[in-house]
Amino acid sequence: MLYSDEKNAGTTVLGLSLAFDPSKSPYYKVVCLRTTEYSMYSYQIEVYDSKTCTWKRWGDFVLPYDTRFCNGVYWKNCIHWIRPTGELYHFNLQKGTLEKRTGALPSSIGEYLARSETFLMESNGHLHVMLLLSEAKFLSVWEMRADKYGWFLKYNVDLNTIPAAFSVMSGQAVSVLDIIRGESEYDSTLVFHLSGMIMAYRFYNKSFELLVDLRMEEFYRPGSLQIGCSDAYQFIETLAPV
């Protein structure tokens, strides 16, 4: 069992993130972000290394209170967290430093960003920020440039084009679960959730597919979401005991 041997009385764990790439190493790291016992605005980071079976503590750090600590994303040896404003902060696992990521989203989308829900996700070496405007059922997918100094618009998705055969009600809530980037555009897919349905959207031909129908389950409630982005996890094919 993983545990930190440090005394953490009076602190709260805000998020746990997995840093693992089986194509590079069978070992993984677990990043635990917690409050400090003397300030609710000060944070510490503890890192568990499976290679040495040890914990190491870093801090203290100051971060905006609205940072989404529970949704840390691993990309290029860093754990990234996003704010509702689209700002990114990253913890460098090699250096033990916490910094604000340079290269903000374009200022021209400021009004759109203010009305959108933000999702930070990684797939196949690509880091994405997705902006979901629920009231209009419109989603834009932005990708971090390879040089890490800015974003470019990768996809636009109009969820109003969902076929009538799926019986989607107007004004229905939407939750983005994952983005899957394949080796080619033909293999890239958005996975999202509408009330009672888990669906896939194929970017290359703008088609929809029903993956899981939850409408006959006991926990289904019309108009409500059964799964959020924090409840969905990527499957990692590996023989390592993670």
UniProtKB/TrEMBL annotation:
This is F-box protein. It comes from Forsythia ovata. InterPro entries: At3g26010-like.
